[in-house]
Amino acid sequence: MTDGSEPIEISVVVPALNEEGNIGALCGALVPVLEELTPDWEILICDDGSTDRTWARIQEQATGNPRIRGIRLSRNFGHQYAIVAGLGRARGRAVISMDADMQHPPAVIPDLVREWREGAKIVKTVREGTVYASWFKRTRSRIYHRVFAWLSGVRLEAGTSDFRLLDRDVVDALLQIDEEGLFLRGLVEWVGYTHAVVRFTAADRLTGVTSFSFRRLLSVGWHGVTSFSIVPLRLGIALGIMSSIVAFLAVAYAIVSKFVLGFAVPGWASSLAILSFLFGVLFVYLGLLGEYIGRILVETRRRPRFLVSETVGLAAPTRIDRRAR
């Protein structure tokens, strides 16, 4: 495995950002569930640059139970990279990822493990009947997943989250992908393998407030689209062709009106408005093109996707992620 130790049956990977009030409750709920399933388990909590006492709480839990281990990133690298940091150190033949805020119920884990033991390599979860989600959030989720599927060709069901179980084969496949702008939900679909779905009702957040603001959610969504699709660039070509056709027809109409029908075409204001609109579209797509070029620049730099500052319960700290090897 990644740290040279013997494999175990189940690993649980938990990314955490400013979750000091939830770490103890989460571990307290996870341990009895895992004990019922297997004697060979571990919990890896990855502190994604928290500014509160999250790391101190992780250390306390690791001191009290050697099967609870911690990874501390040097700063906030993002939720997806925190998950990858945990996947890279997990020893389980099955690896479960879940959030630290208790909205992903530990009581659902036996259902995930049952599907895995019956042969599924990937066991996804889908939220339904979410008690805390507003109509706006549910609608936003449905729209995003439909747009993502249309642009990328990768189907994501509304309500899909990062609460899932991955077989060791799938984990090893994902760790071979060293691209920037990770969108794990899409990558899990992309790698294939047999899968099953478990539906659950999410609980209220135990303590604290979510770090996923609307702006951050938009950023994650945009990374997801640009990581999997060049359709936005192709839409620019289609829009350019349509605009050219409209402009050609307008010029033809002006020529016919002047030299055949004998009157000049009025409407300089409307012509100016059309030109302004087309220039606006042009600059939007120049910005879109720049975004993709920027992604290329980030990839060519080959910087580590995350840095590990310290660990607890791990034999040999890995300072950088796999892509820098």
Core attributes:
8-stranded mixed beta sheet; alpha/beta; elongated; Spore Coat Polysaccharide Biosynthesis Protein SpsA, Chain A; 2 domains; single chain
Structure write-up:
The chain is an alpha/beta fold. It folds into two domains: 8-228 and 304-324, Spore Coat Polysaccharide Biosynthesis Protein SpsA, Chain A; 231-301. It is built from ten helices and eight strands. The chain has helices spanning 23-37, 54-64, 79-89, 109-117, 135-152, 168-175, 184-190, 214-228, 231-259, 268-301, and strands at residues 8-16, 41-47, 68-73, 92-97, 122-127, 160-167, 195-200, 308-312. An eight-stranded mixed beta sheet has the order 7-5-6-4-1-2-3-8, sandwiched between helices. Strand 1, helix 1 and strand 2 form a beta-alpha-beta unit. The longest helix is centred in the C-terminal third of the chain and has 34 residues, at 268-301. It is elongated and about 90 Å long. It starts with 7 loop residues before the first strand and ends in a 13-residue tail after the last strand.
